[in-house]
Amino acid sequence: MDDVAKLPLPPGSSGWPYLGELPEFLKDGYGFVETRTQKYGPIFRTKILGRPAAVISGADASGLFVDQKLVQRSGAMPSHIQTLFGGRALPVLDGDEHHERKAFIMSAFTEEALAGYLPTLQTLVERSLASWATGQEISWLAGFKRLAIEGICTTILGLPSGPVVDAVARDYEIIVGGFTSLPVPLPGSAFSRAKAALARVLAVYEKNVRERLASPKTSARDGLDHILAARSARDGRQISVDEAKMELHHIVVAGLIVWAWFVTSVRELELHPDVRERLRAEVTALPRVLTLDALARAHELQKVTMELRRLSPVVQVFFGQAREDFAFKGHRVPRGWMVLWGIRSSHLRAETYTNPEAFDPERFSEARHEQTRHEHAFVPNGAGSPTRGHKCAGWEFAPMFLQTFVVELLRGGYAWTFTPGQDLSLDMSKVPPPPRGGLMAKLTR
Fold first, then answer.
1. Are 14 and 49 in contact (CB under 8 A)?
2. Over 80: is that where the pLDDT of 412 sits?
3. In 180-298, alpha helices (H)
4. What is the tens place of the pLDDT at every residue in 301-331?
5. How many of the other CB atoms lie within 10 Å of CB of 414?
6. What is the mean pLDDT of the chain?
7. Which DSSP helix (H) or strand (E) runs through 171?
8. Confidence (pLDDT) at 1
9. Residues 46-79: pLDDT tens digits?
10. Is there a contact between 21 and 33 (Cβ–Cβ < 8 Å)?
């Protein structure tokens, strides 16, 4: 500890009084982390709403962030972010409380459960693609967002397509906007509207949970069935209604990243026809009804979707807090400081990935295997253990959804063109960042 105390604080700046560098972060959090990482290295300091923070990136940082002896989640998030996560959900829990809650949720993401969701996702993707392929101009962004939330609602939440899911989808547009707004608690502000939308969503989930408890099923058909059937290893209790509705919300917030992967997939496959046609040849040979094993054995599919996930900007940082003083890369991080892990910047480091900003699925080939250069080189759903740690519970569900989309897009014989003249650049002030022009396109078959 004495040696750590002698180390200098990380380089960086504090920005404005109280606000710190929050305005710059909200404008483009991805660029905020990456430009400062390039300037200062794998650790720099900043200040957010009066709180000093160390921002860390790279494979070593990914491993440090999941070291529960050094970094805790409780007390880490700014209060307005935690509010929009629904309160004491998994991202802010530690220790036994986290392990018990995570076990409830992981019951919905076993291999058996995933295999049960796959036919539903496949049908949903096929139906969505067919509905878009009219030859008329569509907002593919709107379609992708709808596909993402409908896939999560039907498989995990047990909410069928219809007016309820329509309303939930509209409310999540408001909630997600609240994450990247200033936390101004005034009537009509983005933050206040997001809180109101969250209250409506949680009311839907509570009603769904209570109805399911009142009429339990003899066998699980969706994720909520699995979650409600699980029992605590500590005392045999069932997850509470408040815990369940909070975690259903957390699952949706985390799962919505898949629409950003859809966006990246159609952009990159359009830009790289050689990759697209090689992949099309492979997926055309897959069985008509997809299985987990068939997806796992499709090597081109695995390489391409891994690269899509590595490159897609989804969230800027994850929030932790220093449990004690610790050293990282020759600098001291004091106890109580926020520790922000830059997930996208961690995948853009040249010491791990060759020409890291280039789309290059072959980096995951048997010949190169760049993801094995470090234990935590490839962590698009978080590092560490999904059962004992904070790695996303849906770390296999979301990639399965993406792979299903890519398979059906290519083997279905679809072709697409983007409307000329639109702005396809990403709005980095949003989470995830959408194409500014709405990804207007024409899809034909």
1. no
2. yes
3. 190-214, 223-229, 241-255, 258-271, 273-284, 292-297
4. 999 999 999 999 999 999 999 999 999 999 9
5. 16
6. 96
7. helix 163-179
8. 59
9. 999 999 999 999 999 999 999 999 999 999 999 9
10. no
Q: Considering the entire predicted model, what is its pTM?
A: 0.96
Give strand pairing partners of 339.
54, 320
Pairing of strands 415-418, 440-444: antiparallel
Percent of the chain, pLDDT > 90? 92
- Residue 358 burial by CB count (10 A; 0-12/13-18/19+): exposed, middle or buried? exposed
The phi and psi torsions of 332 (rounded to 5 degrees) equal -100, 135
Backbone Cα Rg of the chain = 22
The count of other CB atoms within 10 Å of the CB of residue 432 is 23
* Residues found in the chain: 445
Q: What is the DSSP letter of 167?
A: H
Burial class (CB in 10 A: 0-12, 13-18, 19+), 289: exposed
Confidence of residue 202 (pLDDT cuts 50, 70, 90): very high
Cα–Cα distance, 246 to 439 (Å, whole number): 32
Enumerate the H helices of 28-110 as residue ranges: 29-40, 59-65, 79-84, 95-106
Read off the tokens for 176: 């997600």
First to last CA, the chain: 64
Token readout for 297 is 């054995």
In sequence order, the 6+-apart residues with CB closer than 8 A to the CB of 350 are: 356
Taking 3-state DSSP, the helix, strand and coil percentages for the chain, each rounded to the nearest 5, stand at 50, 10, 40
363's tokens? 């980096």
Q: Which sign, positive or negative, has the C-alpha torsion 436, 305, 384, 249?
A: positive
List the structure tokens of 299. 């090597």
Tell me the one-letter amino acid at 378: F
Between CA 279 and CA 235 the distance in angstroms is: 49
